[in-house]
Amino acid sequence: MISQMVVDTEIFIILFTNITIAFSITLAGMQKVDRYKTVLPLEETDEVQSDTFSSLGGLWAPWWAVYGYYDPRRYDWLTSLLVWVYTLIGSVVLVNLLVAMFADTFARVKESSQQEYIFVKCGRLLMYRSVIHPVPPVINAPIILYKWLRFLAKLISILWSLFRGYVKNCRSSLVKSSRVAIVRGQRCSPRKKRRLSEAVLSDLRHSIEEAQAEPLNATSKVRPAEEASEVADGRDLVDKFLQKLEFDESESLKALSHATREQISEMASRHIKSFELLDERVNTLEHDVATQHHALSERLDKVLAVLEDVRQRQVDGSSHTNDALQT
Questions:
Q1: In the chain, which residue ranges form alpha helices assigned H by DSSP?
Q2: CB distance 81 to 26 below 8 Å
Q3: Which of 2, 143, 324, 327 is the most exposed place for a label (fewest CB within 10 A)?
Q4: Burial code of 238-272, b = ≥16 C-beta within 10 A, e = fewer?
Q5: Collapsing DSSP states into helix, strand and coil, what is residue 137?
Q6: How far apart are the first and last CA of the chain?
Q7: Where exactly are the transmembrane stretches of this chain (predicted)?
Q8: What residues pair up with 36 in beta bridges, in sequence order?
Q9: Is the C-alpha dihedral spanning 73, 74, 79, 83 positive or negative?
């Protein structure tokens, strides 16, 4: 929390300094144009006091105004307005801004205080568990010495293994170079020849010792007949494997064909069922159409009969009318 308040104070100081310097430069300019008087009419004239950079000059007037030292008799109306605005900003606005920043920082820190406490506690527990030795100093000297000795022993073993590998590689490269030199018949100094011969002899001796150290396997030697039988057995195994592959392939083909046939038959049965349903619907529609046609024909016959009856009545009515007119 203190660090965050220090940051807030730094922000306040930066704002306050910038604003104060701006008003100081403004009042120094006002003094140059005789709008700010460093010497009153009743005071004695002093060249030092009339200077802009003196203690009563316009450059220092805002700094004194912050602490309440100002004299309105030295200002005209424009300078008085500037000093009033600066006093309001520097003494009221910025101070209240600093107080508000402190309050906001305190509220934020208080809100996260529980999490901060848990974090610090976990960090301290981690340090005492993994970094700092649980045994206090002076008493833990033997333990630390033992750990250092273990570390040095491990380091020495690693370096020794690396050195052995390097020596082995150098020896093998030396033997190879000696063999190449012997094969090519290169000229060498007696000392180098002696070193090469010693290296070759040591390599041969080492290989002989390794060969003698390994137990001889009596069953490792295979006779030609046994080799032939093993070859025949291998061929039989290969033939059996190929037959098994062919059998598996034929079985897979049979299964695939069977599945394909079943799928085709299932699809055909589905299509047959759909065709049957379609045929039933067509028959139903034909029956409905025939029924409707029969009903329409009956209604048409009735209409024709009614029309014939109406025509007959009209004819009879006209004949009666003619008879009546004749009478």
A1: 2-32, 61-66, 77-88, 94-111, 113-126, 141-184, 190-213, 224-326
A2: no
A3: 327
A4: eeeeeeeeeeeeeeeeeeeeeeeeeeeeeeeeeee
A5: coil
A6: 137
A7: 12-33, 82-103
A8: 75
A9: negative
